[in-house]
């Protein structure tokens, strides 16, 4: 078979770090990836079998490949992120957050204004942010306004125009919100001293401003200027109160970025906390839609690059839950204990709560969407021909062969349907034989459903390995249901899933929602079965003891238990108490049975 253009392109790829790009038949970019070794990574797409359906579809659509070689893997990560954002390829992860965020601008002027904006211009002005909420911006601007008297007008306050007396002070001056630099009442140096302090506050450093205000307050007090001292004291209280509301972590932890990730089959949520001078000054969670089977490591690396670019972070150290490759310039810390571990845990909780809130919102807006997604995922994960809207799970319970019972629990649309739960007392099996017991209850369950023309499930789950699964299959064969209902067994130790006539078990990802629902079914069946088994053992023990008494029947036992609740209380009851419940004759027999003289 002659080599295609794609085969030749793959053979000539370099063993260098860089970015590779896949194009389809229409020469449209459909995927961008990064690699330490471009040739090795690209070749792996075409030389191994892919279990994930979307990856197989991607490979089928690749017609040509291009590459860009870079110096380091970190450069490859940055380039990959930029190309994904620019071209938004069909099969790349989608960073679901394209809204514009507010900034605080210190305008490049002789007397700089400080205001909020959503547009950043390269005009030499300083921009702080972006902030994830306008509320934070308004709070900071309110704090700055309460501490420092800045101008709000947009006049051109050049030295020549001020000296010429072109402007007059406005209402803001008379209200005490501005010191009137337009008429020369405030010098440029005085004004810029305030801007320097504001710049530090926006960076999260309150220390300098607090120290400056304390010195001023002391000087005013020493000069008997108590009204001025009181004003400075009020500013100190405002600043200290704002600082107290910040989440204080540890003053020694400064200029650090913290990242954590929570993911499921379709989405990942990456939380970012920015620490400055011991306080959290920013928190943001990024939602990422998976397109292929990306790992948490791949997603976290991409998210860190994106978030640091978006929020202009220059921190030299980051805390992460596991090792990531972000180049040699950054210090990567994986905290194990102490304050560092606590802040990483806080970040993870933020990501987890963000995901929970998203799921709750989906359930309110579209109640069926969550169930539909789970059903579609289970169908794909378990290789079923239809969605398992109706699932039944069986479990046996016995202790040393006594009182053998079984339980069948039913889930519909991924949720328990308790009205459909069923208990079974084993009738045809002697002794502790789990295989025979499973065969009996599966046969009884589906024979009855067939006789009553009730709907059959799309999936049966057997709590057990190959043995229990084989026993259940015998019953399906006897009822001619083999092939009509999908059936699998789950072994407890390694959570292996067994299929009929397949010796190799299936292992699902431990975070898989499919596995979680199967485990929930298995655990519910176990709980339901154990509950019934305990009731039978208790009833059996009770019946055995009281039925040993001559002349005491089932109704007498029921009457006694209603009154005394336990066998122990019956045994310790006085004669007249027993007579009041069951009459003189039976009361004497019961009393004498428990109080007969010991030889």
From TrEMBL:
The keyword Phosphoprotein is annotated on this UniProt entry: no
SMART domains, A to Z: GIYc
Assigned keywords, A-Z: Cytoplasm, DNA damage, DNA excision, DNA repair, Excision nuclease, SOS response
Domain GIY-YIG stretches: 15-93
Organism domain of life: Bacteria
Subcellular locations according to the entry: Cytoplasm
Domain UVR span(s) in chain numbering: 207-242
SUPFAM superfamilies: C-terminal UvrC-binding domain of UvrB (SSF46600), GIY-YIG endonuclease (SSF82771), RuvA domain 2-like (SSF47781)
Domain annotation UvrC family homology region profile: ranges: 262-476
Pfam families: GIY-YIG, HHH_5, UvrC_RNaseH, UvrC_RNaseH_dom
Coiled-coil intervals: none
InterPro entries documented for this protein: GIY-YIG_endonuc (IPR000305), GIY-YIG_endonuc_sf (IPR035901), GIY-YIG_UvrC_Cho (IPR047296), RuvA_2-like (IPR010994), UVR_dom (IPR001943), UVR_dom_sf (IPR036876), UvrABC_protein_C (IPR050066), UvrC (IPR004791)
Xref: NCBIfam families: uvrC (TIGR00194)
Quaternary structure, from the entry: Interacts with UvrB in an incision complex.
Record function comment: The UvrABC repair system catalyzes the recognition and processing of DNA lesions. UvrC both incises the 5' and 3' sides of the lesion. The N-terminal half is responsible for the 3' incision and the C-terminal half is responsible for the 5' incision.
Family in the record: Belongs to the UvrC family.
HAMAP family, per the entry: UvrC
UniProt-recorded name of the protein: UvrABC system protein C
